[in-house]
Design goal:
The chain is an alpha+beta fold and 155 residues long. The chain has a single domain, classed as Aminopeptidase, CATH 3.40.630. It contains three helices and eight strands, in the order E-H-E-E-E-H-E-H-E-E-E. Strands 1, 2, 3, 4, 5, 6, 7 and 8 form an eight-stranded mixed sheet that branches. Strand 7 and strand 8 form a beta hairpin.
Length: 155
């Protein structure tokens, strides 16, 4: 049982394949949402993954500020279907937030969350900053976490 944070160039080909397969299996297949999963951000992002018994069970992509919103963002937050209900999503979010605030030291973090997960993200201090909108057939909302408003991190 290990957590790993790595830049794109530090990932082995098999490891990258497993991360991308998990993302496609959930975001494209399970959610029945054909969209361009490979968006050109992976190569400059940091990848956080939890591995257990040789399999990636949780993953998030941490995107530097200059790439998307002008501030760092958390994306592709995912827990494998067979590992849900174990608290991995909460731990994944805590580790993602901590890494960004501790390593990049921004004033805020953003994310583009599916609306059904809005309360989950709010439990970490994220606040909605947009109206609900359709993104590839799924309702989303943009959210922001101010450095001073992150109650559940270990900074």
């Amino acid at each position: 049982m290990t957590w790993k944070i790595a830049d794109f160039n530090e990932l082995a080909a098999a490891e990258l394949y497993e991360m991308l397969k998990l993302r496609v299996d959930v975001f494209v297949v399970e959610q029945n949402c054909p969209y361009p999963e490979l968006d050109g951000l992976d190569q400059k992002s940091v990848h956080l993954a939890y591995r257990e018994n040789g399999k990636i069970l949780a993953y998030s992509r941490l995107v530097p500020g200059e790439l998307k919103y002008g501030v760092p963002s958390i994306g592709r937050v995912i827990v494998s279907p067979d590992a849900r209900g174990r608290g991995l999503a909460r731990e994944l979010m805590r580790k993602s937030i901590d890494f960004i605030f501790n390593e990049w030291q921004p004033e805020e973090i953003r994310l583009q969350g599916q609306v059904y997960l809005q309360e989950f993200y709010q439990s970490f201090g994220f606040d909605p900053i947009s109206d609900v909108y359709d993104e590839d057939g799924i309702p989303h909302v943009d959210m922001r976490l101010d450095k001073r408003g992150s109650p559940n991190t270990s900074r």
